[in-house]
Amino acid sequence: MQLMKNNKWWLCFLLCWVGYFSYGQGYYEHTINGVSEQWHRVDLPVDAFGHLERSYASIRVLGKDKNAAMVEQPYLLVKDQPRTVMLPIPSKIINRTRKGNDYYFTFEVSDEPMLNQIDLNFSNDDFDWKVLMEGSVDQKGWFTIIENYRIVALPGKYRFTRLDFDAVNYPFLRVKINAKEKPVLNAVTINSAATSAGAYEDWLPTSISHTAIPKTKKSELIIDLGKTVPVSYLKIKPSVDYDYYRNISISFLTDSIKTETGWRERWTKIRSGTLSSFGKNIFQIEEGLTSKIKIIIQNKDNQMLDIPAVEVKGAKHFLLVRFDGKPPYILQYGNRKLNYPQYDLASFKKNIPKDPNKVHLEKAILKKVIEAEISTPLFTNSIWLYLLMGLIILVLGGFTTSMIKNAKEKD
Fold first, then answer.
1. Does domain 200-317 have CATH number 3.30.420.10?
2. Using CA atoms, how far apart are residues 17 and 25, in angstroms rounded to an integer?
3. What is the rounded CA–CA span in Å between residue 176 and residue 132?
4. Is 368 exposed, middle or buried (0-12, 13-18, 19+ CB in 10 A)?
5. In the structure, what pLDDT confidence band is assigned to residue 270 with cuts at 50, 70 and 90?
6. Is the dihedral of CA 141, 144, 150, 151 positive or negative?
7. Which of 77, 105, 250, 372 has its CA 20 to 30 A from that of 398?
8. Fold topology of 84-195
9. H or E element in which residue 408 lies
10. Quick one: 317 exposed, middle or buried, by C-beta within 10 A (0-12, 13-18, 19+)?
């Protein structure tokens, strides 16, 4: 029995070792055309993401040096998506008034930037109110900014009291709430949004399925993108005419393993959140590479939501490359044995031109290489590979014979 255990360990070791030397023996290559200046922009092809790891470590740009040897051309990887940062603006509540069931709260803004968000902090924990918000330059003439805007609090469960609106510039803002119960406003935070330049790329799903999970009060929404792409934005669009709020978790497909019973998918949880009829159901996500998104929805005793549509987006990825060599220039990616490159230009980003000209990539070519060519000279001759495989077969055959003999002796 002990011999059989040892044999199994040796077998596992050999299979893993063979797998190591047969994995990643290839990369993809594009010839770069149109290099006319020192700096250029190189857009990553969409198909490249399926051959990249999360770190993007395998990307290389090559060109020839003065001795005609291929050398790396340094680059900076840019993920070009809009980023919004909310900056709190100094403000205070200067008036609290009432007229019948209408409650008014007036705010004075110390600075005068463009404003586009207000967070209201109430002591009340159970309400469903409609809000009218107005702006003024002198507290005499008031102009409507938003109306019939719904804010909600469910005791111990859910709270939505943030007002989002198009950017405005008023030194005075006023909120009117019609309520039977007196709104007790503790504090207000008025924000100015600073949005960086950039644009999302839309990833259209190939299919969307929403099914109940047996023996649970949950359902599973699967969004199949058809290819691996970077995802950092998700908007879920339920189509219902009633109020709802549901806790959810969002996961990305990170790997698939083939087993005897079929393909086994491996998922990584990205974040949690809440679907509700009050908010926009937009989820900003830390970027990840994936081809499928899984959303688990906690329905409790409610019926499943009808979700016919979603929006999935990700940043545009491109390289800012300094071409110091001579053509031909080549873009390579997909060799998972490489570490992320370290170039000096990463410390001098201010010296990189902001909008260099784009170059054109030719069609990708798969380059297969023998592992020995990039790691060790032992197997530069194919005869060594045949000898290695023969040795492995002999060792495995010896283990099999030994196990059979051991079993017969026990009988």
1. no
2. 14
3. 5
4. exposed
5. very high
6. negative
7. 372
8. Jelly Rolls (2.60.120)
9. helix 382-410
10. buried
CA-to-CA dists, residue 236 to 232, 290, 292, 297, angstroms:
13, 17, 15, 12
Q: How many CA atoms lie within 13 A of 250 on its CB side?
A: 24
**∠ Cα 50 52 57 (to 5°):** 175
**Read out DSSP for 64-131?**
E-TTS-EEEPPEEEEEE---EEEEEE-EEEEEEEEETTEEEEEEEESS-S-EEEEEEEES--SEEEEE
What is the secondary structure of 329-389 as a DSSP string?
A: EEEEE--TTPPPP--GGGG-GGGS-SSPPB-EEPPPEEEE--HHHHH-GGGSSHHHHHHHH
pLDDT greater than 60 at residue 377? no
Q: Which residues pair with 233 in a beta bridge?
A: 284, 313
- Reply yes or no on whether the pLDDT at 71 is more than 90: yes
Closest CA to 252 of 297, 202, 307, 295: 295
DSSP H/E element including 397: helix 382-410
Classify the C-alpha dihedral 371-376-380-381 as positive or negative. Answer: negative
Q: Write the CB contacts of 321 (distance below 8 Å, at least 6 apart in sequence).
A: 39, 40, 41, 42, 61, 73, 74, 75
User: What are the DSSP E strand ranges found in 183-280?
Assistant: 185-195, 200-202, 207-212, 218-237, 245-259, 262-276
Q: How far apart are CA 359 and CA 393, in angstroms?
A: 50
Residues sharing a CB contact under 8 Å with residue 288, sequence separation 6 or more, in sequence order: 54, 230, 231, 232, 252, 254, 268, 270
Coil, helix or strand at residue 55: coil
Q: Which residue type, as a one-letter code, is found at position 188?
A: V
What is the residue-averaged pLDDT of the chain? Answer: 87
The pair of three-digit structure tokens given for residue 350, joined into one six-digit string = 């201010």
Map tokens 């790396």 to a residue: 72
Taking the alpha carbons at both ends of the chain, their separation in whole angstroms is: 13
Confidence of residue 204 (pLDDT cuts 50, 70, 90): very high
- Segment 328-347, tens digit of pLDDT: 999 999 998 899 999 999 99
CA distance 253 to 260: 20
- Pairing label, strands 172-178, 185-195: unpaired
pTM of the model: 0.77
The pairing of beta strand 60-64 with beta strand 326-333: antiparallel
The whole-angstrom separation of Cα 30 and Cα 46 is 13
